[in-house]
Amino acid sequence: MKKYILIAATVIVTCTSCNDDEFLNRDPRNILIDNQVFNDPAIVLSVVADLYARYPEYQQINGNVHDHANFNEAFSSQDYGRHGNQDFGYGDWGWWNYGFVRELNLFLEKIAIANQLDEGVRSRFEAEVKWLRASVYFDAVKRVGGVPLILQTLEYDFSGDPSYLRVSRAKEHEIYDFILQEMDAILPALPANAEIKDRATKGLAIALKSRAALYAGSIAKHGVRTPEVSLPGGEVGIPASMANGYYTTSLEASLQLLSGEMGNYHLYMKNPDSLSANFASLFIDKNQNPEAIFVNDFRLRSGKINHWTLENQPRSMSEDGVNGGRVNPSLNFVQSFELLGNNSFSPFPIRDASGNFIVYDDQLDIFRGRDARLYATVMLPGSTYRGSNDKVDIWAGLFRPQNGEIISADQPGVVQTVDGTDKQVVGFDGPINGFNFTAQTGFLIRKYIDPTPGAGQIGTQSDVWYIRFRIGEIVLNAAEAAFELGDLGLAAQHLNEIRQRAGFTTDLSAGDITFDRIVHERRMELAFEGHELWDMKRWRIAHLILDGQNMDANSLVQNIGVATKRKTQVYGLWPYKIHSPGSPDHNKWIYNIVQPNRVTNSDRFRIGNYYSFINDEIRNRNPLIVINPNQ
Amino acid sequence: MKSGYIYIMMLLYSCMLYSCEFDNYDEPSSILSGNIVYQGEPINVAINEVNLELWEPGWQLKNRIDVIMNQDGSYSASLFNAEYKLMFRQNQGPFRMITNPETQSDTIVVNVNGNTNLDIEVMPYYMIRNPQIVLEGSVFNASANIEQIIMGENARDVERVSLYVNQTMFVDNRGNYNLASRNLSAADIEDMGNVNLSLEMPNLVRGQNFIYARIGVKIQGVEQLIFSPVQRFNI
Question: Which Pfam families does the annotation name (chain B) (predicted)?
């Protein structure tokens, strides 16, 4: 009997079970599933934040700071290899980030079917990610030309033959057209609010339109300079006939943004009394800054901080041992700032007519009377870092006028016995050839340097933001597009807006506006903001500026302000202190043009560098991909 | 005793550097070499500037083997015995390929079996005929006849003719490969049949009693120049 009870009990236990729906279907505790994510605006926002954080960039303030020295606008005071090699690799600045594109497409497909979100919220997220996707394709087309335009996720059907997923490269102009159309399409869903700086707004969509259309227009127009940079299928190169259309689109977008209908954006002018201080604070003022359209924001003690100040503070006042001083603006760049008086270009006067060194009472005297942006972009010898007492200590040695002898040392700030007394013979910021973090060109960078105490400490660092789009660029876009369309008056008007903020009192007239002027103004205004490579490429002047020929000090000071002026090697301007006890010139200053001795080769941008190499691996997987010109 | 131990350890370590035959492939043993020529005359280019590509068909993945031209137009590559497809990069080099009768394209099929010599016949845009460089006192005087080879729709104009001087035997248009240069743009040349250039002897960076020079021609739309053979001068 006991046996039967046991059998019966076993049968009951094995044949009945609990409510399996409840017991087995459990929500995962370690991941969020689609339904949970796409129905909660807070979680969607954090997904979008991750996508924003992957916005593509080159030469920003938080990456490899040495990239700013790639094209001789600056010297890298630590990483000298780039000044000793000649060619840029064909693969440099390459792109094939379809992993990111897939994630953007996945997001768009999922947000499209999310039904628990408020429609306004949903369409704004959708528009933001579409903006990001367009800017990723803009990044791609700048780097490699027309790429396969993938706008939905590709799924493999496991049939054994994935070749149906191959997509060939779009024409270069098709990518630009996509970007422009996409901006028009997303515009209604975005807010028109100039207070929003770190998410997509109407202003940002129009700003991208202004920039992308300008790039497309200039590739079409200036492509004639390099007919070999084109492919028969149009993957590279835009027909010249399309230039005016793109310039018109760009100009309209710029004017729309400047008119204020997309939000209250205007040029930053909080400190009209000191225009150079005004220009410097444009980049670091995060409070109601009307200039910024879209930024990469940082925040102390949040994990998202930047090392620009840590890596570029003056070595003599470093808050982190002996760190800093990495990006040294070159004399090639510094001398290009115009004289305010008559809008003219002039090298720094270092010798008088009879060939003697000109003696300056104060280190800063040689730099006076120039474009206000010079003092805001560059820390000059004798200028201050933060307060009024902390002067940077940049000078290369003592100079004896009697015999031309130079007394110096190979360590910063060394004190030696000179004529019986102990004297410091070289500045604490150098310049000393090959000594890391000294100002090896005689200059340090000021743009984006954070004056907040602690910004130079490795444990704190800086939360200065990085402006990716600002209204100053839009004004210059308008000037350039107007110039290319032949409206010189309008071009002059916009150029003068920017120049008045830089302290110029004499306006340029319509007749003064040339291609060189447009190129020069962008170079000065937008220096170290990640524009230089793309600008040189779209104007098709990179192979002329970086032509692989050596330079000399004579040719350096000629043709300043010419768009195609050679810039293959970095030069510096070194101050020396006069040592001549008893003479009136004692402890005054002379300057000399010096080439940092780590500059041993001249950069060469080859025709094949205009569009980066798409490597063999990619082309093996998809034989429809054609190779870029001259590789 | 201690040193004996070290010797034993060193012996054991050096044994580790050897390996058996099973895990080693033979190195490529055949050498393909030759010149790029026009009617048998080598075409001089800048070293490291012009590449030809070898592709070995039949494999799943395709990767090119880059072969670099010497400045006298010669090349060589160590290869495995196999059939290769040889081509020049598009728009590189101061010449165009001749259509190959076998492949009906600019690709040449090369069968490498042991050491193989292959001169590649191409059509240069121009040839530098009869280059003369003489050193008179401290001045180089050069003359040459620039003969246009490719006529018709593929013809390209000369951009400039240049004379380059260098202290090493590598002489070309790149910054560190010439000590001094003299450029004559095409607009200033009256007669391509008789181009004359002169150049002052540059300051020598280091003392030596010889110097090298040659003439280069830059063709519009082609990055790489065509050169005359390098000449050596005693000074």
Answer: DUF3823, DUF3823_C
Coil vs helix vs strand at A158? coil
Exposed, middle or buried by CB within 10 Å (0-12, 13-18, 19+), for A339? middle
Instruction: Give residue A595's pLDDT.
Output: 95
CA pair distance A373, A211, nearest whole angstrom: 23
Q: Does the residue A421 lie in any domain?
A: yes
Q: How far is CA B63 from the centre of its chain?
A: 22
Residues B45 and B101 reside in one and the same domain: yes
Whether A543 is covered by a domain: the verdict is yes
A447 with A497, same domain?
no
CA distance A412 to A422: 15
* C-alpha to C-alpha distance for B134 and A271, rounded to whole angstroms: 66
Question: In chain B, which residues touch A (CB < 8 A)?
Answer: 61-64, 89-92, 173-176, 221-223
Q: Residues A194-225: pLDDT tens digits?
A: 999 999 999 999 999 999 999 999 999 999 99
B211 phi and psi angles, rounded to 5 deg: -155, 155
Q: Quick one: A353 and A502 in the same domain?
A: no
- Taking 80 as the threshold, does the pLDDT of residue A166 lie above it? yes
How buried is A533 (Cβ within 10 angstroms: 0-12 exposed, 13-18 middle, 19+ buried)? buried
Residue B6 lies in a domain: no
pLDDT tens-place string over residues B88-116: 887 888 999 888 888 888 899 999 998 99
The answer, yes or no, to whether residue A417 has pLDDT greater than 60, is yes
Residue B221 with chain A: CB contacts under 8 Å? 227-228
Residues A592-599 have a mean pLDDT of 95
pLDDT digits (tens, 9 = 90+) for B107-142: 999 999 989 999 999 999 999 999 999 999 889 999
**What is the least distance, in Å, from the CA of B196 to any CA of chain A?**
22
- Is residue B21, in this structure, part of any structural domain at all? no
Banded model confidence at residue A341, pLDDT cuts 50, 70, 90: confident
Given this model, what pLDDT does residue A58 score? 92
Residue B43, Cα to own-chain centre: how many angstroms? Answer: 8
The reply to whether A514 and A558 lie within a common domain is no
Domain final residue pick, B88, B123, B158: B123
In a domain, B10, yes or no: no
> What share of chain A in percent tops pLDDT 70?
98
Same domain flag for A238 and A203: yes
Do the domain assignments include residue B194?
yes
Domain final position from B101, B123, B145? B123
ipTM above 0.95 for this complex: no
Full domain range(s) for residue A412: 307-464+530-602
For chain B, the domain total comes to 2
- As a whole number of angstroms, the distance between CA A431 and CA A379 comes to 13
List chain B residues with CB under 8 Å of A629: 90-91
Q: What is the tens place of the pLDDT at every residue in A223-254?
A: 999 998 999 999 999 999 999 999 999 999 99
Give the distance from residue B18's alpha carbon to the nearest chain A alpha carbon, in angstroms.
Answer: 33
Per-residue pLDDT for A12 more than 80? no
**Out of A15-24, A263-272, A486-495, B141-150, least confident range:** A15-24
Kind and range of the H or E run holding B161: strand B158-166
Residue A171 lies in a domain: no
Query: Residue B156: which domain range?
Result: 126-234
- Say whether both A253 and A385 belong to one domain: no
Ranges A496-500, A588-592, B9-13: which has the least confidence = B9-13
DSSP run (H or E) holding A522: helix A515-525
* Mutation site, A224, A225, A549, interface B, largest B CB count within 10 A: A549
Say yes or no: A344 contacts chain B, CB-CB below 8 A. no
Distance (Å) of CA A611 to CA A66, A143, A172, A208, A542 = 22, 6, 11, 21, 12
Which domain CATH number covers B86? 2.60.40.1120
